[in-house]
Amino acid sequence: MFQFWSLPGPATFVEAVAEDIRQGRSVVVCLPEWHPQGLHQALRSTLPLSDGWMWERIDGASCEAGQPTNLLFARYAPECLPGARRTVWALDQQPSVWGLLLWVDGLTEEHWSAWREFLTEYATVCRQRPKYERAVFCVALAGRAALNPPAEDVCISVRRWSGCVDSLDMLIYTAEQFGAHASSPVQRRLSLSLVAGAALWDPLTSERLAREPTGVLVDPRPVLKDIARERGWEPGDEAVLSWHRGMSDCYEGRVHAHSALLSLSDDTNELNSRIWRAEVSVMLPYIEEQRRDMLSRFGRLLKVPFTTRFGEVITDPFDLELPHIARQIGGPGGGVDFRTRRRVQRMADVRNKLAHLEPLHVEDLDILT
Q1: In this structure, are residues 285 and 193 in contact, taking their beta carbons and an 8 Å threshold?
Q2: Is the sign of the CA dihedral 129, 130, 131, 135 positive or negative?
Q3: With contact defined as beta carbons under 8 Å apart, do 184 and 367 qualify?
Q4: Phi, psi of 256, deg, nearest 5
């Protein structure tokens, strides 16, 4: 999953978080429940120890994490007098915390409220300290807690993981972890397009679908339903209001429901549209290449002017479409073998289906072999 964060969109997000930290600002990263792993490693790679960062990790799920000030004193200023007041201001005065970069993850909703208050106060207290002396916190919030970030401040920023991935990112990522199950280059392109078109922003779904053969990908609903069940999603869940659960995200300028959620309930037929768009992007160029090849191979058998069944008269042979070619070479005495005649007709049928916004069935893929 680490390579996911090196893609253009995710890498831009990581760099924005890193730049906040370089400027001495703590960062709260808001993530949905189902998010790509590896952000911590990607950020550490961007801000290496050799640059002077002193990385520490705090597990927010531990019971002591519910009292952030006490926890930080106990870990990084244990020599502080027992009777001294352990305030945020007093913590900022401890040289032992200066220059620390603290990664905090696993926070529960219960613990987050205390951390939210702490970070807000610390952002005010540390303003007077040079940025290279401040303790900087990078807090990864996932799920419902991510809906309640602190107010942004001179010394604290909020980075929301939304709208950070586009179709190019997902095509690259899917291609990198694709297997060799496709038997031809065009089948591989089709499989890649189908996976990226269904996964949209979600690399976890891309990884799952990329293991499937092309015949499954033309109707991935069974796999997508498994993903939805594993994530605890139910028919009727409101996607637009459930970004924090991973059910929706802003993708290329619009909010979209996750394909796994659509596999449970899809009143607008959007999942079919995603499958169709993925097929059109590969199949129509392929069919056009095959049409041109047929014109080159059988040009001597094709006659113009040719009158279509709609009464249109075609005078240029290069304007003949696959149904016109099929009609002219369709006779058994035309010198074209049955397999080729059938292939031309099948390609014409597939093109007609796509032109009428219909997704393909697994049997339609026989034109690729």
Answers
A1: no
A2: negative
A3: no
A4: -125, 145
Kindly list the distances between the CA atom of residue 311 and the CA atoms of 127, 314, 331, in Å, as whole numbers in the listed order: 79, 10, 21
Residue ranges per domain, the chain?
Answer: 2-160, 167-268, 284-368
Would you say 227 and 368 are in contact if contact means Cβ atoms under 8 Å apart?
A: no
Structure confidence by residue, pLDDT tens digits, 34-91: 999 999 999 999 998 767 889 999 998 887 777 899 899 989 888 775 666 789 999 9
The model carries a pTM of: 0.89
Asked whether the beta carbons of 68 and 114 are under 8 A apart, the reply is yes
Amino acid of residue 278: A
For the beta carbon of residue 40, count every other beta carbon within 10 angstroms.
16
Is the predicted pLDDT of residue 10 greater than 60, yes or no?
yes
**Dihedral pair phi/psi, residue 204, rounded to 5°:** -65, -40
Rounded to whole angstroms, the Cα distance separating 163 from 4 reads 15
C-alpha distances in Å from residue 301, one per residue of 163, 208, 277, 305, 341? 53, 48, 35, 13, 13
Give the C-alpha distances (Å, rounded to integers) separating 336 from 46, 93, 298, 339, 362.
62, 88, 9, 8, 27
Distance CA 336, CA 46 (A): 62
Question: Sign of the C-alpha dihedral, residues 60, 66, 69, 71?
Answer: negative
Q: Which two tokens stand for residue 26?
A: 């703590």
The angle at the Cα of 90, spanning 86 to 93, to the nearest 5 degrees, equals: 145
Domain 2-160: CATH class, spelled out? alpha beta
The residue count for the chain: 369
Q: 226: part of which helix (H) or strand (E)?
A: helix 221-230
